[in-house]
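User: Could you go from structure to sequence for me? I need the amino acid at each position, not a summary. Structure tokens:
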């Protein structure tokens, strides 16, 4: 304990607790702000694109030399219906990136979930 607080332990404890509470409160406030920012960012276009592309790469989908991930994602998002059966994508109809499981290369590009299950 510092010499200037000799005999004044209670005052020292109060002062220390006040400083500690402020530090801890700031840390909690920063954590909350990051959490709010991350929730907002997750639903933005760049975050959704990054998550989809990362998932495709992790499951082993490969690109041909003349393709790039951003154009594949743009096609994946903007295509309104399944090219195989013509069903419109929306609630209840999942989009699937059709790829060959042996080679990992993309075949037709985009199929609805039903056509994708029938294809395998």
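Assistant: Here is the amino acid at each position, in order:
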């Amino acid at each position: 304990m510092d010499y200037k607080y000799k005999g004044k332990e209670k005052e020292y404890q109060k002062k220390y607790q006040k400083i500690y509470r402020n530090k801890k409160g700031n840390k909690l406030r920063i954590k909350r702000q990051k959490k709010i920012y991350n929730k907002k960012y997750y639903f933005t276009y760049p975050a959704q694109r990054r998550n989809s592309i990362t998932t495709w790469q992790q499951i082993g989908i490969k690109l041909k030399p003349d393709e790039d991930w951003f154009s594949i994602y743009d096609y994946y998002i903007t295509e309104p219906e399944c090219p195989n059966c013509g069903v419109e994508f929306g609630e209840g109809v999942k989009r699937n990136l059709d790829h060959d499981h042996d080679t990992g290369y993309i075949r037709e590009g985009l199929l609805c979930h039903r056509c994708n299950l029938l294809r395998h």
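One structural detail worth keeping in mind: Strands lie at 95-99, 106-112.
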